[in-house]
Structures are given as C-alpha cells and as structure tokens.
Amino acid sequence: MNHTDEEAYAALRGCDMAPNKTAQKLLLQGAQNAWDMLSEEQSQKHITTGSGSLNDILGGGIHCKEVTEIGGVPGVGKTQLGIQLAINVQIPVDYGGLGGKAVYIDTEGSFMVERVYQIAEGCISDIMEYFPCHHDKASSGQENLQPESFLAGIYYFRICSYTEQIAVINYLEKFLGEHKDVRIVIIDSVTFHFRQDFEDLALRTRVLSGLSLKLMKLSKAYNLAVVLLNQVTTKFTEGSFQLTLALGDSWSHSCTNRLILYWKGNERCAYLDKSPSLPVASTPYAVTSKGVRDAGSSSCKRVRVM
Amino acid sequence: MRPPAPKNSAYGQQEPRPGNLLFFLAPHRAAKLSLGCPLLDRLLSGGLPAASVTEIAGESAAGKTQICLQLALLAPLSPHPSSSLFLCSDVPFPLRRLRLLAPKSRPDLLDHVLVAAVHSPSDLLSLLSRAQYHLSHPSHSPHRLPTRVILLDSIASLFRADFDASPADLKRRSGLFFKISAKLKELAHRHQCVVVVTNQVVDVVEGNTGNTVAWSSGRQVSPALGLAWANCVNTRLFVTREVDSNGGSARRHMKVAFAPHLPVRTCEFVIRRDGVFGVEPAQRTPWPWTAGLPPNRTDDDDDRICHVAVCFHGTLENGVSSS
C-alpha cells in the first residue's frame, strides 16, 4: 500500500467521517498486543479431526482464524476428512465441541449424503460413549443429537465451473454475515476447475491468490476455520517424477497450515508440512465406517473385515 | 483479460443458494442404478450413485464393456425408468452382445440405448454439449424415456493417438481430462445422471506413482491416463481377472479402489451368457433369497451364483437392500 497520509485522510473524509477520530479508533480496534492474542488463542477451541493422533500433530485440531490446506492422492481420505470436519464442528458446546455450522463448497461431486449421514451417526455414537452420564442428565438435549440435525447444519454449495467458484467465494462474505454461527468453510477441492485448460497461467495465479486472500480475511473476520482440499500432481524435476501439490509454487504460500495425506504401505498417514507454530510431524490415521479415527482402533478393524 | 464465462451457467445473475442436505437424502438413496445382481449391488451399497462419475478400470477382457452393456439394459427397468447414452470409442459397438443380453421378452429395451461413436477428445466434448441440450430439453414422446445414464467406453482409447510423452502434450492432455470430467460432472449433477467411464490399464514400470495399483493376470497394473485422470473421477472400480495355471476358467474380481461412500472391498463375479453376476465367497453360507428359488444351473456354474432371471425382472422394483 503506497498511500500517503494525505490520501488516507482524503479517503476517510470521503467516507464522511471525522478523520482523526476514526483513524485513531480504527487503529485502536485493530491493534492487539501479543499477550492478548496468545491468551485468546489458548482459550480458542479447535475443531477435532476425529483422530487423537492427528489432533496432536495439528496442535489440538483444525484452528479457527487460519487457512489449512489438505492435500493427497485420490482415495487417501481428503473428502472423508472434509466431511468429518463439517460434522465435528457441530458437536455441541456441552460435549466439548464448538456447536457451530459448516459451509461445504463441493467442486468435484464427491460429497455423498449417505456417507455424511453415516459419519454423523458415528460421531453421535462416539459422543454417547464418551459422555454416558452427561447424556442421561441432559435428556432435553437429546433431540438435538440426531444425524438429521447434523445434516441440516451443513450449508452445501455444488458448483460446476470456476466462475461459479469465484462467485460463491465472493458471495460468502454476505452469507457469513447472515450466518454468524458458521465456524468452518470447506472447499473440496479448490483445484479441480483450475486444472482445465487455463492458458494464461499468470491469470490463474492472480485469481487464485485473490481467492486465498479473501478466504484468509473471512477466516479472521468471522473467527472460522478455512479448509482447502487440494489434489496432487506429478512434477518433473531433476530427471524424475515427484509428487507435489497442484496449483504451483506461488499457491503454496497462500495457506497458513498444510497437511499432506499419503499412503505408507497399506496405512494412511498424515504429514504436517507447514505450520507457523508447530513442528513438522507425521502420524498414521484411519478411515473407518464411522469416519476418520485413530489407526489401530477397534472400529478400524471392523471395516477391514468387510 | 477476463476469463470467458462458461455458457449455460445455471446461476446467471442470482445469488448462489446452499442446498438443503435433508432434501437430498431421500432421493439420493433411491437414485442408485442397480447392476442387476444383489451381490454386486451389495458391494456398491445399492448400485452406482447418480450425480457422480464412476470409473471402471481393467485390462482387456476383464468385463468392463459387459458391465456397461448390462447397465444400459437395466436403466429402463430401474425404479426411475430412463434411457442410456452409450458413447463408444472402442469401435465397433458390440451390438450382437447387447442383443444377446437383452431378455427375449423385452426387445423394446434396446430402444432405450442411444449409441454414439466418439473418435477424439474434441469429438467427445462437442457430443457432451449436444447431450446437455438433449438432457435439458427432454422430448415428451411416451416412447422416449429421459436419459439418466451416460456410459463412456472407453476414455483411454480417445487419448491413445495424438499425444506424445512430451511435457507440453502431457499438460494439454491433463487439461482435457479436467475439461471432460467437469462436463461429465456438470451433466451428472444438473440432471441426476449416473455416469460411468471405463478405462484401460497400463503396466506399472516405475515405483510408487501415487496411482491405484492392482494385480491382474499376474501383472501389476494401474489404470491408464495417470494420476491426473485419477483426480477426475469420484469412484474408481477395478476389475481384474486371474487365469489359473492349469488353464481353468478366469476368476474375476471387482474391487472398490476408492469411493467417497464405500470402503475398500472386493467381490468376485462371473460373466455368463446372460450377463455379469457376483459370486458369493465360498466360505459363506448362501444368501437367503437364493434358497427359495429353483436352482438354475449351467454346466460350469456352481449354485452360489445368484439367480439371474430374477435379478433381471423381479427384484428390481423391490430394490434388494444391502447394508
């Protein structure tokens, strides 16, 4: 921003506000000392992924006010994790959740309602298992814990082209203003429509960085988590093909956290590739009939038997 | 320069509206297309999902085209009777086999299979645009069912010619994959179509490329067209065949390689004169619904193969439920 002070004053005057007062107020509102930020961050609840070890490497789960990118090869569980987060964000506050709602932007058509229902049922049965006495007492809250209500808490957008994708993300600002209880926005996947014949790659980069800036701003403004699912592509470097996340190097700057899902033999693993506050780490996880869970748990074996 | 706006965007100038998932739930469950066999339907928990692209990958003679032909004939018999659009790039179209599969009592089923030949990726894209018009302007003739099934056999043969392994060509190729897939998915979503695309396989030469790997005929194979295409499908089914060393008949398996709604699991199947049918694993007891039926044995089948004629005519309306 190369505005001079005069220009800034002129702009503020244009808004029909007293320049000095407003500028001061804006500054005071915007500024926050690091101590406040730390205590605020520590009091923040995170969105659980369903797997304890995955939560551990993420520092408690998916963080609000941050953009997290999740990448991996087809079939490794990106969409499963996306759906799981859309359900888990709705765990009521009484049961240690955020009690929020989710926006799910589906660009690929992999969001299957029957699977969402299954994961919601799995989530409810786990809540019942962890809070048996709590549940007995709060019988009034029981009607709240129905898979149907979890489904109703997901605002689902199916989009079929990149113009629609841009339009939906622009519209999100208004939508989130009207739906303040949304605590997570999931885009599955951010990549798909941008891998068609985009001849002007510089334009693609500009459009994408515009989108990511907008999402980052939204995540701060509305205190919500943004989760972007990304595909994996092969890149030819130094005489060999290597797997890398799609959309190129400039895109890789646009997320706060990056989690990479990969296969290690027959085991699914997650690798925290980028985070401003956490060490690089990896852990196995599993996708069970109930959703994303720890590897080696009993519910995982049940699926293998099928 | 602004990117050109795609035509026929349904949103127009309106604000996008989120869909209500509860509204989706009921029709979603009914909208699956049965494979005509309870065992294969159980593998897919009810059949092939609508509004989604399913790939069937497998080596030649694994049974891909057979499954497609069977689906084409089952579409008019499904709870939502519909015609199917069969896009054929592996010339010639197996018309004789289709006639053989169609039950003698229902020759009219063939009227609902619309066949079109495609020769190149651009051919396919223009055909899909025409199909879009056809789907959004259904004819009101009582003899013409709405098209709800799109079968493409096969995607790989479209890309066999005209492309080198040079980086520029690979990039152009994957751009086309995403364009074709976006079009298929758009048709699938807007018109609740079941889209099936078959794919060939290639031998695995390098180590881990991130793509699906399976054993078929003693070789390690991956679906063709690489990782880029793998990103373009929602569900991947892998059909494999193994021939015994002593020259016995081939054992075929259908495996869910990945799917948003299904766990990885496998079912054995056989191809018979009258179609493709699942086989119950030997260690399990026969299914209750096969018990009351008269055994319909042919020489090389055992009695665990589910009853065919019933699958074709009777149980479709009831929709054999599975877990």
Keywords:
heterodimer, A: 306 residues, alpha/beta, Rossmann fold, 9-stranded mixed beta sheet, two-stranded antiparallel sheet, 11 strands, 23% strand, disordered C terminus, B: 323 residues, 3-stranded antiparallel beta sheet, 9 helices
Question: Gist?
Answer:
The complex is a heterodimer of chains A (306) and B (323). Chain A is an alpha/beta fold. Helix content of chain A is 42%, strand content 23%.
Poorly predicted regions of chain A: 298-306
Cα Rg of chain B: 20 Å
CATH fold-level topology of chain A = Rossmann fold
Fourth-level CATH superfamily of chain B:
P-loop containing nucleotide triphosphate hydrolases
Task: Supply the CATH class of chain A.
Answer: Alpha Beta
Overall geometry of chain B comes to: globular
Cα distance spanning the termini of chain B:
52 Å
- Topology order of chain A in helix (H) and strand (E) letters: HHHHEHEHHHEHEHEEEHEEEEH
Over the alpha carbons, how many angstroms does the gyration radius of chain A reach?
A: 21 Å
Count of separate DSSP helical elements of chain A: 12
Structural class of chain B: alpha/beta
Q: Kindly give the count of domains of chain B.
A: 1
pLDDT under 50 segments of chain B (min length 5)?
1-12, 283-323
Overall pLDDT confidence of chain B: 79
Gross geometry of chain A: globular
| Order of the strands making up the biggest sheet of chain B | 3-2-4-5-1-9-10-11-12
CATH topology of chain B: Rossmann fold
- Write down the overall mean pLDDT of chain A: 83
Sheet with the most strands of chain B?
Answer: 9 strands, mixed
In the CATH scheme, the class of chain B would be: Alpha Beta
Family (chain A): Belongs to the RecA family. RAD51 subfamily.
Pfam family, one (chain A): GIP1_N
Main location (chain A): nucleus
Function (chain A): Involved in the homologous recombination repair (HRR) pathway of double-stranded DNA breaks arising during DNA replication or induced by DNA-damaging agents.
